[in-house]
Specification:
The chain has two domains: about 260 residues, Rossmann fold (3-Layer(aba) Sandwich); about 160 residues, Rossmann fold. Helix 11 packs across helix 12. It has about 450 residues and is of the alpha/beta class. The longest helix has 20 residues. Strand 10, helix 12 and strand 11 form a beta-alpha-beta unit. Bound molecules: pyridoxal-5'-phosphate (PLP). The site of pyridoxal-5'-phosphate (PLP) has 18 residues, from helix 12 and helix 16.
């Protein structure tokens, strides 16, 4: 073994005191969110009906590189951070690769994923503004769980619209949320106008994140004292998640480690955006170079087969338009798709970076992802979330390439969470009944047909 510990931790006084905003260093900024009616950039005033004020300011800030983390949030972070940066010695040995593999593990908290990093920040600013509560959607349930923990800690009301397929298949996470005091509703529901409309058009739908977002937004804007919060995609979420990358970089710098390849799974892009933030900052400023790979499911391939276009962030088409890689808000992913990463779009920041050639993307099939998860669990001990396992799969592929070429590359990937609540998916993998669904071009055409024309920008 080399002189690098199995786990690299930072001391409390080495934890980041400010988040890093990649957009400040981007020459081509992501396009602004547009008002869907006028196609004009959304103003802070328009946004403040949906989001709380401080978060609107963060959402629109393309120029401030470092934004201080309030002391209360840092105190909360200290309950479960720093998260460990692990040298995957056992995996390297098993693969027989000369590559050095590291992963940043974000599953060491009750919510089981990185989402708590932004949940506490968003709940904090809502509380500071004197709001009563927040509404949100959740897919697999990690975000809803993280938000209910943050709201319970701060004494805020929390209403969660949970994608119906997950609500039914993942009762355990639902009960964790309720234990933390959140109200949880299966989406689409009959409680909202948009839910009733979606149910009328698609009876029997198992729901999607896009539907649930529409419902949560409607409830926020029609109830005084409530705002909507979102667990991914938005600039503010990538900003909060930069704590992952800042800790990773500080830990690596301590030992003089420089990653050659950085890999993360990409649903809406927040963990990947957070992990790469300080590294991408160096790349954008021309100080260093890194290969960055976003990994997405072949069943919901926003980057690799999507279009770079303005689109609604939700199925109900009540949210603003964002220019991103998208499959169209009308795209409803296959119900056999396990875990999260079901969103039709992608962070505008990562979309712009991908468009400008700063990151690569790869789509992987579900069964190959679970095979990698199983192999990883058996040697590294951690039972990974299916989402995280997309990154594991590609990290292993890259490490095996190094075995062929003899290159001693350093590979870093984000292990975003644990898979304890995803055992239904593991069951279908273990039983051999898991299938791979890859949409045909005709399937994708349905989603693309739902893209709104935005002639002003074409
Ligand atoms: C939500 C989630 C993801 C995907 O979301 P991003 O915003 O793309 O990071 C990945 N892994 C886990 C464990 C999650 O809970």
């Amino acid at each position: 073994m080399e002189n690098i510990p199995y786990k690299i931790y930072l001391a409390e006084n080495e934890l980041p005191t400010a988040w890093y905003n990649m957009r400040a260093d981007m020459k081509t900024k992501p396009a602004p969110l547009l008002n869907p009616g006028t196609h004009k950039p959304l103003t802070a005033e328009e946004m403040s009906g949906i989001f709380c004020e401080e978060l609107v300011a963060q959402e629109l800030d393309d120029t401030t590189a470092f934004i201080p983390i309030p002391q209360e949030i840092r105190d909360f972070y200290k309950m479960y951070r720093p998260s460990p940066l692990v040298r995957a010695y056992c995996l390297e040995k098993q693969l027989g690769t000369p590559a050095k593999i590291y992963y940043k593990f974000e599953g060491n908290n009750t919510s089981g994923s990185h989402k708590l990093n932004s949940a506490i920040a968003q709940a904090y600013y809502a509380k500071k503004q004197g709001l009563k509560g927040v509404t949100t959607e959740t897919g697999a349930g990690q975000w809803g769980t993280a938000l209910s923990m943050a709201c319970a800690y701060l004494g805020l009301d929390c209403k969660v619209y949970m994608v119906k397929v997950s609500y039914e298949q993942k009762p355990f996470r639902r009960e964790v949320m309720r234990t933390y005091g959140a109200s949880v509703t299966a989406s689409p529901s009959m409680e909202t106008e948009v839910g009733r409309k979606i149910l009328a058009e698609h009876p029997g739908t198992t729901g999607s994140l896009g539907c649930a977002i529409s419902e949560a937004v409607e409830v926020a804007v029609t109830n005084p004292g409530y705002r909507y919060v979102l667990g991914s995609v938005l600039n503010q979420v990538l900003l909060h998640q930069s704590v992952i990358g800042l800790e990773t970089k500080a830990a690596m710098d301590k030992y003089g480690i420089k990653p050659d390849i950085i890999i993360g799974c990409a649903g809406g892009g927040s963990n990947l955006g957070g992990l790469i933030a300080p590294f991408m900052g160096e790349k954008l400023r021309g100080e260093a170079d890194y290969r960055v790979i976003a990994v997405e499911p072949a069943s919901c391939p926003s980057f690799t087969r999507g279009k770079f276009a303005f689109d609604f962030c939700d199925t109900g088409k009540i949210c603003p338009l964002a220019r991103m890689y998208t499959l169209g808000s009308g795209f409803i992913p296959a119900p056999n798709h396990a875990g999260g990463l079901r969103f039709h779009g992608m962070s505008t920041t990562l979309s712009q970076l991908y468009h400008d050639g700063y990151l690569e993307a790869r789509a992987v099939e579900q069964t190959s992802v679970f095979k990698a998860a199983e192999q990883f669990a058996r040697v590294e001990g951690i039972l990974p979330a299916p989402e995280s396992s997309h990154a594991i799969k590609v990290a292993m592929d890259e490490a095996l390439k190094c075995k062929e070429t003899g290159e001693e590359k350093t590979i870093l990937f984000g292990l975003t969470g644990t898979g304890y609540f995803d055992l239904k998916a593991y069951e279908s993998y273990n039983d051999g009944t898991m299938t791979d669904y890859i949409p045909t071009d005709e399937d994708l055409a349905v989603g693309f047909a739902s893209l709104p024309p935005v002639p002003e920008y074409d």
